[in-house]
Structures
1.
Amino acid sequence: MGLPAYKNEPYLDWSDEKNVEAMRGALKKVGDDLGREYPLIVGGERVETDGEIPSVNPANPSQVVGHVGRATEREADMALETATSAFESWSRTEPEARARILLRAAATMQRRKLEMLAWEVYESGKPWAEADAQVAEAIDFLEYYAREMLRLKDGKDVYSVAGEENEYFYQPMGVGVVIAPWNFPTAILTGMSSAAIVTGNTVVLKPSEHTSVTGAKVTAILEEAGLPEGVLNFLPGYGSEIGDYLVSDARTRFISFTGSMKTGLRINELAAKQQEGQRWIKRVIVETGGKDALVVDDSADLDAAAEDLVKSAYGYAGQKCSAASRAILHQDIYDEVLQKVVEKTRALNVGVPNNPEVFMGPVQNEPQFEKVANYIEVGDEEAERVLGENPGDGGQGYFVKPTIYSEVDSEARIAREEIFGPVLSVLKARDFDEALKIANDTPYGLTGGVYSRNRDHLEQARTEFKAGNVYFNRGITGALVGVQPFGGYGLSGTDSKAGGPDYLPLHMLPRTVVERF
Ligand code: NAD
């Protein structure tokens, strides 16, 4: 297939008034379309359910973004059955044809970009630039995985011995259950689903109960791109109601999950148990959370370090799995960097994301708001709060002010547990060795970073920093598809790398075929 070389989707320039006007138009258009119903889609059919999941705007919880179907085990069973029968023909569809559907979906998403951004603003409370980065990432996943499938479609070279042909190639696996989180409801959901589909599998897609309208929009785009009925089944529902059923069922061949460590471990455990009639060991691809640290040593450019620390900690209100939630500062520059971080954080524009100047909006949902508020109570007992306010009751929007704790002990809960909100714990280290030791003293291992001009320190961190994605002298969020393959180890995941060259093979069965002549 003659395709242009892969490149990342560019971000919109919000200093261009034309873009701002166009975005205002999209917000108005989508605003007029709020409150609609989004049923399940199984085998191309719209399926009504008895219950529903209301999706609300986190910046204004009385505004309903949409009413989404609420699947029970009954519909989950239908979806698994449908995906099982659709696998027969989809798995035989040529890889090129599968890849073309992703490319077409990417083109549609590009054409509808502002509309997708507007849904993100309403359903996720994302500031414009964050929504833009997310939709760009979703487009990147589609473009990248299409090309990856073309690269892998004939397998990989192996050596041969005389008189024989030795072949090594990949085949589709079966039905994949894709379970998505709410924090990147376009990008991660698109990435996980499209990887499973382009490799010839069929999918039961369970979006997060907090962002299912966005999931419905992505599903519609893939449908319009020509995906045959039954290949992608949209099954919104509560994890607590249908999660175990989907994961345990004997028809499920693999599970692709992104979300919390607790849920990920449960899925891993349930999937390991063989069910009656199950003829395979289920494969589990799990991406979970992090307690990501940025280390600043005494040789660093302190202004740049503070700037990137603030962006990494508070972008999308700290609700990125890659967000900096620990700053580990060398004792000699501790006070100076802390002061710079406090100043820069105080200057952040926090509010309803209805214009491009807003840097940080609300946290995404009520349980999330309560969880972060609880951690602020914990933090007040454990350390010194140098910035932040007590959150209100959330009734006017789930807003939490950027919060900073200083003098945080490495044993404190706010230094060890994933808060997933705009709360930064600042720790002090005697020297670089101790800083790295503190950074690594966590069961997670997702992202991390070092700000330093000391070559030895950077080389030491290159091998010793225990995180899947390590960044030097820059922020630690915003991994680019195809450029910075993303994923953690330890309890942060099953060592997979989304947006990287090893990702698609996780969704396929490698086969060796030998013919003696
Ligand atoms: P979550 O675990 O609460 O939910 C994730 C998904 O799992 C949702 O769709 C939910 O409905 C479903 N679920 C819940 N219980 C289930 C069960 N028993 N069986 C099957 N599915 C079930 O996580 P969340 O709050 O949506 O997402 C936030 C978490 O995701 C954070 O910990 C964050 O760090 C992590 N995350 C990780 C990455 C990564 O790439 N490593 C990316 C984004 C988010």
2.
Amino acid sequence: MESLFKSLEDEIVSGKDISVPEFLKTWLSKPKLNFIGNQLCESNSKKVFCNTNPATEEDLNWVVLSDKVDVEKAITVAREAFNKGDWAKLTQSQRAQVVKKLGDLILQHRAPLAILESLDTGKPIFETFEGDIPRAASNFHFFADFAKEEETLQFQNGLDEHQAFREPLGVVALITPWNLPLYLETWKIAPALMMGNSIVLKPSELTPLTACYFAELTLQAGLPPGVFNVIHGFGDKAAGEFLVSDPRIDAISFTGETSTGRAIMRSAAVGPTRVSFELGGKGATVIFEDADIEMAATETLRAGFRNQGQICLATPRVFVHESVYSKFKELFVEKAKQIKVGNPLNYSTRMGSLIGREHWEKVMSYVCRVEEPMKVLLGGDRPKEIKKGAFLGPTILENVPLDHKISREEIFGPVVSIYSFSDESAVVREINSTQYGLSASIWTRNTERAQRVARSIHAGLVWINCWFARDLRVPFGGQKRSGVGREGGKHSLDFFSEWKSVCLRRTQ
Ligand code: NAD
């Protein structure tokens, strides 16, 4: 297998259109099953649903459709595994060995995972191979090292010895979206495992593939049965909702739309169950007159169009100081024209298709609202040379009123509006005027101003002269309606564990 994967890696980076290798075709030809207690299981109802490739609109494979019985079974098995303690009672160092191995296995299987992720999402293989899959591996490597070093606290107070340490929570539910499937699943799985929990994961119904493939890797890593379980199916009034409404779940970590977060919070009231939510965003970039305009345009291009703009941290609103507006606009549109849109399975492609027809129609419903004096500077439709698939080229708008739906709602597609501004406090007010508060970027050479603006923007993440620069120790999450709680480093460990304090009073 090693030499097969190596030649597949070479083929990916060669720049040729790659075809799906035979072993993956065989893998795809079998229906994708739930993974419960280290076994692949059919669903109770025996029903399946079809998973399609959004770039070709062809059927990819069948996936089991889970119902309440399947969800209850997964939770029961996860609880039994937790109570048995084969994972929960290991030391951090023992768990770290297995968690690290999961990261190694992902790197070993980088090529097939990247191909599956591109087939399932329509995103370019350049992104899955160079970005998403290596990042999934580093989620395991990072948390294995980081959590291993977690301290036990000790305090002496007179005769009393106080000790505090972490304990696992129990069974945790992980619910994830389609835009960065394995990347975001592993971002939750790694700390949940390191803290000794048992997991029931429900991946997005639109992107089940890499979760299935990963489940098979957990067998090789040596996770005890029942510690990691995957159930497939839909969210609302289906597997997702059954999972988060079950009072035996000890915590819910969810990433997805703000409206789904509201629904899950209602379901979680049954516990009440601990929740962590990473929700929608409507990011903004502000470019001041003294910014490095060339660099700002290049990075804003990434921020606007990477993953077809389907990133919660994307920047659909770009505010440019009036004195450099024309220069920026020209550069930005020119650079956007150079983005290669096309076959996701070609390494030189930089934009693939959106997640599917339904989402394409949602994004287009915003673009179709453009009317005088608004202008489409670029894009606005499927590129002419592409005949089918959920493709939309980089789309740049101007003169969009700030109170327009396009300026205020999360579109989650490759649609960027540029606005001219003259006054610092007014632009900060505009940036802060949506219900979201996830991320923003500031471009200026004036560090004092950058720091001042960063503090006045209501967002959980602010980048100065960059975008999406990440350190996995840093708290990650949104303000306002963009989230509840924080992930990353210690924050993920806090969420997935319970601190216990023990006081010992020494007697003679
Ligand atoms: P979504 O909310 O539609 O679905 C996410 C997951 O929730 C899916 O697995 C779905 O089946 C499940 N679900 C749906 N209804 C449910 C319910 N009632 N109970 C339990 N589970 C339910 O989101 P999506 O369309 O998959 O993803 C796009 C959204 O995710 C965007 O809003 C984006 O901003 C957000 N997102 C946020 C972050 C972040 O870090 N803040 C990261 C990525 C994506």
3.
Amino acid sequence: MKIHIVGGGAIGLLHAGLLAQAGQEVTVWTRTDEQAKRLQAEGIRLEMLDGVARDIAVNSHSLPSLLAGQAGQAGADAEHAAAWIILTVKQCHIDERLLHQLQRLSSGKSALLCLQNGIGHMDKLAAALPGTLLYAGVTSAGARRIDDARHVRHTGDGPLWFGAYAEDKKDDNLQNLLLNILKSAGFRAGLSNEMKDRIYQKLLINAVINPLTAIYDTTNGELPEHPSRLKLMRSLFEETSAILAADGMKSAADGWQLVMQVCAATATNVSSMLSDVRAGRHTEIDWINGGVSGLARRIGIASPLNDAVTTLVKQLH
Ligand code: PAF
């Protein structure tokens, strides 16, 4: 099946590489021409969990070429649109320009799976793409880009859950097709009709680990090692879980344990937020802790810790 992967970051390249390796016809849409040229010419260099690296051929075009009308092969790829588009860009890149590019890429038969951290993007995408079947996804797979263009390392296995954003806007055949394709490419994928809950559970983990690792400049494993950091983690966890529960999250009895388990399982990893700060990139703070603060305001409860870490992280980049 034709699959468009939008975004050439670590998660995009990981999904593109594994799907192309399993025989799917994958096109990677990147933000720069330079990256698209490298991917088209040399393919994705995918380092698997067992350390073995392979070069995997994919098609690749830049997103700007979709709007420039100069696309040539890019235009042809977009015209015969894929059944599935997988959106892997960071939240801060979902702007008017990208929405316009996605309108070009999607067609009547397209479905869009969104794999972003944080909240806020789904409403924006639903408004911009009224004719597209929209799916929310949550992935716990770990990936790290080793160079600027094509080399990605799969750093951790984890489930990928996805489900329709609106119950009345889904296609059972299309979603089952994607599920089978993902499974045969090696993903631990599953369909869920509790996506809001899954998104909130992941948001809770990200809202505790990401800002504090960025502020303290520690790996995920080092974060809970100092008593004062652990205390702050716990307070941020309590505040965030109360806000998310007030907005409908089923509170998991073992929520705190889960945060600690993620720190242990990804102990040597640098969180995506710290990695953005170190590289001088924009972080997803506005859609993680900023998103939690926004929910709290809407519900009418205070969110002093989420407000504070949002302000602090914004000053790091
Ligand atoms: O954003 C991240 O880095 C990851 O989602 C997580 C779970 C915090 C682990 O590093």
